[in-house]
Design goal:
143 residues; alpha/beta; Ribosomal Protein L13p, Chain: A; four-stranded parallel β-sheet; two-stranded antiparallel ribbon; 5 helices; 6 strands; globular
Length: 143
């Protein structure tokens, strides 16, 4: 009889990858990052265990979108107070907080539970080309 293999958290080896977002389409890049964060690229993948790797995204401000999304796509935040709903377009969001654009796109592609929140913490997003994770010796990923 074959038994189902379930990886233990101590057995999982995590790697660091760096992704250059310059010129990449937002949704396609986010889906590939979510796959790496979940660990679906590994043969030991299990949906109930976080076996994914760390991802560093650089040049988040130079992301590409298709169509008229720069003006039409809106991001909403609610403060919790009456009339506390604020909206901001994708163009303004990229100018003020470019890391939020990629973070929200990837967050929507991860599980909506504690495991998904844990996976999202393994992603580091930076607006420019520099990042402080050189000590982890990240490997470059090309999509």
């Amino acid at each position: 009889m074959n038994k189902t293999f379930v990886p233990k958290p101590a057995e999982i080896e995590r790697q660091w990858f760096v992704v250059d977002a310059e010129g990449q389409t937002l949704g396609r890049l986010a889906s590939q990052i979510a796959t790496i964060l979940r660990g679906k690229h590994k043969p030991i993948y299990s949906p109930a265990v976080d076996c994914g790797d760390y991802v560093i995204v650089v040049n988040a401000e130079k992301i590409h979108v298709t169509g008229r999304r720069m003006e039409q796509k809106m991001y909403y935040r609610y403060s919790g107070y009456p009339s506390g709903l604020s909206e901001i377009s994708l163009r303004d969001q990229l100018q003020k907080f470019p890391h939020r654009v990629i973070t929200s796109a990837v967050k929507g592609m991860l599980p909506k539970n504690a495991l998904g929140r844990h996976m999202l913490r393994k992603m580091k997003v930076y607006a420019g080309p520099n990042h402080p994770h050189a000590a982890q010796q990240p490997k470059s990923l090309e999509f």
